[in-house]
Amino acid sequence: MASRDIKKLNQGKANLSQHNHYDLSVMKPFVKFGIGAMGAIAHTLVGIVKAIPKPHDNHDEKPGEGKIIKIS
Fold it and tell me: Where are the beta strands (DSSP E) in 1-72?
């Protein structure tokens, strides 16, 4: 093999702006999917928390006139 066919590693400077742009274009779909998935999870959790009844939601009863349950 002739010496002109041998490539030397770590010679010359790499263009970092091209690598950075390439990395961003590759990761963009994954980032968008992750943000969308987190939004869906957040909306679901808010819906679950809103559906949980609060302990003082009974407006029919006056405070102190709650139900008494005897366990014998």
Answer: none
Task: Name the nearest CA neighbour of 51 among 43, 60, 59.
Answer: 43
Confidence (pTM): 0.48
Whether residue 63 is contained in a domain is answered as no
Q: Is residue 67 part of a domain?
A: no
pLDDT tens-digit readout, 13-65: 666 566 666 777 888 999 999 999 999 999 999 999 999 887 766 555 566 66
Q: How far apart are CA 32 and CA 56, in angstroms?
A: 41
Domain range holding 47? 16-54
What per-residue confidence (pLDDT) applies to 46?
A: 96
- The reply to whether 62 falls in a domain is no
How far, in Å, CA of 38 to CA of 31, rounded? 11
